[in-house]
Amino acid sequence: MLTRAERKAKLSERGRRGAEARWTAYHASIPRPNYGELPDPCFEVIVINHVSKKTKHLVFHPGKKSGSYRIDVNGKFWKSAGWTDSLVRVRKSCRRMTNI
After folding, report:
1. CA 2 to the chain's CA centroid
2. Is 86 found in the same domain as 47?
3. Is 100 part of a structural domain of the chain?
4. Which residues contact 79 (CB under 8 A, 6 or more apart)?
5. Average pLDDT over residues 45-64
6. 24 and 54 share a domain?
7. Fewest Cβ atoms closer than 10 Å to its Cβ: which of 14, 16, 30, 42?
8. How many Å apart are CA 87 and CA 93, to the nearest integer?
């Protein structure tokens, strides 16, 4: 006879295997997107601060990993990051326009 903890673990394992099977069956029917090679540069973002009259030109080049970009600001390498991380940094520095 199983203890209460063993019974819970067994039911949990059965539920996990069922969820994995459902997930695999659903996703097996959906083809994977093929985006091909990304152009260089991928994106350009121009940030204009009308208060301080400063402009920053961000250029996103394809990075080594999927979803990662090498980012140049005003022609100088800034950092390697994803789209969201870089825009969060721009948003935070909009008041000063000196950190990026």
Report:
1. 45
2. yes
3. no
4. 71, 86
5. 87
6. no
7. 30
8. 10
